[in-house]
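Record 1 of the preview.
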Amino acid sequence: EVELVESGGGLVQAGGSLRLSCEHSGFPWDDYVIAWFRQVPGKEREGIASIGSVDGATHYASSVKGRFIVSSDSAKNTVFLQMNSLKPEDTAVYYCSADRFWGQGTQVTVSS
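->
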């Protein structure tokens, strides 16, 4: 059974940092992409970063490029999202996803 579990969200002041984790299990694939999304109530879910399991290729949305870094630890089946220079507009529920599977999300709140 495929499972993704996010953790690491919380409340942080603007300019601060947080590191989110996405622990995954049960993947039937050797080659996959894990993506991070975020969603604000009333708005569409926004894809913000992704990383490939084989080549480690990363991609970022323009809204987070230069501030967020996605990485993976294959030994721990975990993908990380290091978020720096956080802004109030980064406040959202953050999700990780692989194929059609999603985690439950973790809330990030950035105070001004």
